[in-house]
Amino acid sequence: MPKGRIYEEALEILADAGVPVPDDLTKETRKLILTAPEAQLAFFLAKPMDVATYVEYGVADLGIVGKDVLLEESRNVYELLDLQISPCRVSVAGLPDKKTVNGRIATKYPSIAEKYFRSIGEQVEVVKLNGSIELAPLIGLADRIVDIVSTGQTLRENGLIELETITTVTSRLIANRASYQLKYKRINQFYDQLKQHIERRGSRDEDRQSE
């Protein structure tokens, strides 16, 4: 399970789908491993960028992770299901005048940024930062940034605008490749449980929109 923006929505979709979740998951806790013994499940709480790593190396059979992480990390895992939660986008943003001064792009997603600008034939220097990406254009470190955008509020508050959308992002259910073969029945049951819930929720949303 990822900490941060995906966590609450992921927890809600698991509970609504009937997956037993430990009581501690719904509370403020510093525990990193929580168990639901009756369902023979253990939940590991990790930074979003680390979830796919734990799954790839088999210490977790399944994980919930943003598509942005999968695109950036290129981990060797199975992507099983689009959970349709935490929608956002990976975008290029910068100051409104759009002037290119130093050709630098600041980002937490160097792989995504490099592939995108290569695909449009633009040569840039990608500078990796770990936080406060919006600061880079304001102090002249970079002309533009590549970052996750949800509401755009942080960009607006810092005088930046969204220039281009690279890709849209939602959260995905992923599986370790070996676990998927060895524990197929259990994993497929878990998959079906979530898939059916997502389909029912989608039908309810369509019904409400048509009223």
What is the fold's blueprint, element by element?
Elements (H helix, E strand, L loop, with lengths): L6 H10 L16 E4 L4 E4 L3 H9 L5 E5 H7 L4 E5 L5 E7 L9 E4 L2 H10 L5 E4 L6 H4 L5 E6 L3 H5 L3 E9 L1 E5 L1 H6 L1 H27 L1
Parallel strand pairs: 6-7, 6-8
Antiparallel strand pairs: 1-2, 3-10, 4-10, 5-8, 5-9
How many strands in all? 10
State the end-to-end CA separation: 36 Å
Assembly category:
single chain
Mind telling me the C-alpha Rg?
19 Å
**CATH class term of the largest domain:** Alpha Beta
User: Which range does the strand content fall in?
Assistant: 25-35%
Shape: elongated
Helical amount among residues, as a percent range? 25-40%
Task: Identify low-pLDDT runs.
Answer: none
At the fourth level of CATH, the homologous superfamily of the largest domain is Periplasmic binding protein-like II
Strand order of the largest sheet: 7-6-8-5-9
H and E order: HEEHEHEEEHEHEHEEHH
Mean pLDDT: 90
CATH architecture grouping of the largest domain: 3-Layer(aba) Sandwich
Structural class: alpha+beta
Number of helices: 8
